[in-house]
Write a structure and sequence with these properties.
Blueprint lengths: L4 H10 L7 E6 L5 E8 L2 E8 L6 E5 L11 H9 L3 E7 L5 E7 L3 E7 L6 E5 L5 E4 L41 H50 L2 H13 L10 E6 L5 E6 L6 H45 L3 H10 L1 H8 L16 E5 L5 E5 L2 H11 L5 E5 L7 E3 L8 H13 L8 E8 L3 E3 L8 E3 L3 E6 L2 H5 L2 E2 L2 H5 L4
Length: 488
């Protein structure tokens, strides 16, 4: 459960000494958490702002969680914009909203709406215009697009029966420390239940596989138990071999082992009688020899099934992650599914080099720029999706530029940024003007027999763009090492 407005109010009272502290760095360990590293008179502090769907909260951390190898765009935007000291840390309208204002070369504000699954964190400029958001924007009555003025949440109604879980202060723990300890335990319990669920799902998956395998083995055993019938077919064919015509699918012969009762013997019309006889003897030997192996394998499969069935209640009773991991280690088949080391697991080979440079706009939108002709082709036809926007300088060779549309459609500012990059990567200098066209990736086609990167396109629109050095400087480019590393 997330913090209530009253609990946030008490936490902020404990965090009041942070006002006036100097911002050292910004971290984003996950897609729902932002950590502000602050330097105070009493030492360095880590302030967590979390918009987790279940555990929205703020408090101090004892240690910094590990950051992903590939930084999130919002983290890079905050590192670029936020400077100086934190002038204020306050609650807004007795609601679950916190504002942190920083004053350096310019004034910027971080607004954390700690409202559960609809929560978000906004970076605002001095005029309260939105520069970027921690989470992708969802449908909302407020217009919260990048570049728009920030619209606060509606004033909440008078709260009724607000419960306070941390009302009793300990002699050794402050209020915010009690909050931090509570959520550390809650998150650990959630992680334990998630691990338990994954292991149980893996056990059920393995049990289904074993059930299918046992059914197949029982079918093989039923066939193997008919081995004597194939030997009988071979013996009868051997006795009547000269009388059997070729090209028949079956033949009815008197069986001397059953008082000359008629016996229908199946034949392969493509084979002569002698080859059919040998074929039945081969089947007899194969099935007769397979019976002990099939029985042994069936016993192993049934023993494994019983083992996994008995494991389920022990998984349910496990009280901590260590106990679960011990059970996983003891049963390798489960561990394979849980850790992803079985068939279909990801390769341990190093990641393939990306074909594009990656830029991030001040609004947090990504723009991809091809590195070469072959990379242009890979970017457009392998990396980009059909509804992404494709940008290129009209009538001149240059880089393919793609605007991913997974969060939302690009606005005019993003299109201008992409057009500027297309000009810059086609050899245009500062102050030069050119026409840039854009369309959906699905309307771009390769030229048969053309050089790598040569394409035709349709349903395009165009705009005039001038190379602006100041505008280019606003864009954050990730270097090669950061782009090619995958998050851990």
């Amino acid at each position: 459960m997330s913090l209530s407005y009253l609990e946030i109010q008490h936490v902020l009272q404990d965090l009041a000494p942070l006002q006036g502290s100097l911002l050292r760095d910004v971290y984003q360990p996950t897609r729902t958490e932002l950590i502000l590293s602050l330097r105070t008179h009493s030492g360095n502090r880590l302030l967590l702002l979390s918009v987790h769907p279940t555990f929205s909260r703020l408090h101090l951390l004892d240690r910094r969680p590990s950051n992903p190898a590939k930084p999130h765009p919002f983290q890079m935007l905050c590192r670029k914009a936020l400077r100086g000291r934190m002038d204020s840390l306050e609650q807004v309208n007795r609601d679950r909203v916190v504002r942190c204002t920083f004053h350096g070369e310019a004034t910027h504000t971080v607004v954390a709406e700690l409202t559960g699954r609809h929560g978000n964190i906004f970076l605002l400029d001095a005029n309260d215009r939105i520069l970027g958001t921690l989470r992708p924007l969802r449908a909302d009555r407020r217009n919260l697009a990048a570049g728009s003025p920030y619209v606060p949440l509606p004033t909440p109604r008078a709260p009724v029966n607000v419960t306070e879980r941390f009302s009793t202060r300990s002699e050794t723990l402050s209020y915010q420390e009690a909050v931090a300890g509570h959520y550390e335990t809650a998150i650990a319990q959630q992680a334990l239940e998630a691990l338990r669920t994954r292991i149980q799902a893996a056990v059920r998956k393995e049990l289904k596989r074993l059930t299918r395998r046992a059914s197949d083995l029982e079918s093989d055993l039923a066939k193997a138990e008919q081995a004597e019938q194939y030997r009988r077919y071979g013996d009868v064919l051997q006795i009547h071999l000269p009388r059997i015509p070729r090209g028949r699918s079956f033949v009815v012969l008197p069986d001397p082992f059953e008082e000359n009762q008629p016996l229908e013997v199946p034949l392969d019309p493509e084979l002569d009688p002698l080859a059919n006889m040998r074929r039945h003897y081969r089947r007899y030997k194969k099935y007769n020899a397979s019976i002990p192996f099939v029985l042994q394998r069936l016993e192993e499969v049934e023993a494994r099934s019983r083992e996994l069935i008995s494991l389920m209640p022990r998984l349910e009773a496990a009280r901590d992650e260590h106990e679960l991991q011990q059970l996983v280690t003891r049963h390798r088949v489960v561990r394979t599914h849980v850790e992803g080391r079985g068939r279909g697991a990801k390769s341990s080979r190093p990641p393939r080099r990306l074909p594009h440079h990656r830029y991030v706009t001040p609004a947090g939108r990504e723009i991809w720029v091809g590195k070469s002709g072959r990379d242009n082709e890979r970017l457009t036809f392998q990396v980009a999706r059909g509804n992404d926007f494709w940008v290129h300088v009209l009538g001149r060779p240059g880089a393919h530029v793609v605007i991913p549309c997974r969060p939302a459609l690009p606005d005019l500012e993003t299109l201008l940024d992409a057009g500027m990059l297309a000009l810059r990567h086609s050899g245009r200098g500062a102050g030069e003007k050119a026409e840039v066209c854009y369309t959906r990736v699905k309307h771009v086609r390769k030229i048969p027999g053309g050089a790598p990167g040569q394409v035709t396109f349709s349903q395009e629109k165009s705009l005039m763009v001038t190379v602006d050095a100041a505008r280019l400087a606003r864009l954050t480019r990730f270097d090669e090492q950061e782009i090619e590393c995958r998050p851990s």
